[in-house]
Design brief:
By secondary structure, this protein is of the alpha+beta class. It has one domain: Roll (Ribosomal Protein L24e, Chain: T), CATH 2.30.170.40. It is built from two helices and four strands. The strands form two sheets. Strands 1-2 form a two-stranded antiparallel sheet. Belongs to the bacterial ribosomal protein bL28 family. Keywords: Ribonucleoprotein, Ribosomal protein. One of its GO terms (biological process) is translation. One of its GO terms (molecular function) is structural constituent of ribosome. This is Large ribosomal subunit protein bL28.
């Protein structure tokens, strides 16, 4: 599963791990991606989305129909 949210677009960020002696090594900060299945009344079917936790909260506030309409407008595959 790709580490990218379909709603917010958030992806992995990169930085350094810093040891006690202050040596830096590359590391990757992955977002908290969850696979969620929603019933979309406007489409009349279920849709499975890869979402960050902030994307799930966005759907709770705006509603699944508005978010899915925006994703279809962007050309996102559902």
């Amino acid at each position: 599963m790709a580490a990218r949210c379909q709603v917010t677009g958030v992806g992995p960020q990169f930085g350094h791990s810093i040891s006690h002696s202050h040596r830096r090594t590359k590391r990757r900060f992955d977002p908290n991606i969850q696979k969620k299945r929603y019933w979309v009344p406007s489409l009349g079917r279920h849709v499975t989305l890869n979402l960050s936790v902030k994307g799930i909260k966005t759907i709770d506030v705006r509603g699944i129909d508005a978010v899915v309409a925006e994703l279809i407008e962007k050309g996102e595959k559902l």
